[in-house]
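QA checklist item 7 of 12: single-chain prediction sanity check.
[x] sequence parsed
[x] length recorded as 265
[x] structure emitted
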Amino acid sequence: MFKHTLRSFIYIICVYLFISLIPFSGFEDTTPDIQPYIEAETEPVDMRELESLYFSPGIAGASASPLTDKYIALTFDDGPHEAYTPEILDILREYGVKATFFIVGKNCEEHPELAARIIDEGHEVGNHTYSHLPNIAKADEDTIMRELLRVEDTLHELRGYRPRLFRPPGGVYNVTLDRVATQLNYTAVLWNVDTHDWRCPPSPKIATEVIKKVKPGYIVLMHDYVVGKSNTPAALRIFLPRLIELGYRFVTVSELINMSGTPEE
């Protein structure tokens, strides 16, 4: 019995040693080398060389002059939404705040009365593509141009409005997008503070993110269209009075660009 047990033990030890030594005994490691693939597929770009991208103070490599006054811009993406957009507009009107709405064309077609209200109440409208174009980083110039022009046509028919700002879905920006933006005379706009409100976090968390991170000249990203229960309107009621108390004033993105020393073309 003892010899049998000893033999089994020795056999298990030999198998373990064999397996543990496989990577060093000439077997090829088939794990893909991900990092070189990423480097090969992603061409490094100096964002400061892109013609149509606005660098607001605080963004890495910013070229605009820092603002000394406490002006900031609130932005809302992806709308209009039948419920959240009018609620947000009511709150902005209550506090006397102007904002910039980067609309999605198909949502504008579904709710033209809300897009018209945004314009009529003195807010700015930017272009966020017609379909919230997925994988925009891989899209060709013709596709991107069709998406932007379709939004332009919709807004022109609605109010004779021609947007001058463009925000790429997901904040993705590259040389191809820059070429199209330049051809169509757009200023591309990203952000400094991302509230991640599209994930529907609690309203105090959204508000805290804004209050803690905002600085003069900053652009704040929010959404008036989310899937699920949006807490953005409730967050506005928390942080707007607080920022007003701290001396902040709210302007549109175009106004902020002009103040920053980087006028639009």
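[x] summary fact logged: The chain is about 45% helix and 10% strand.
[ ] second reviewer sign-off
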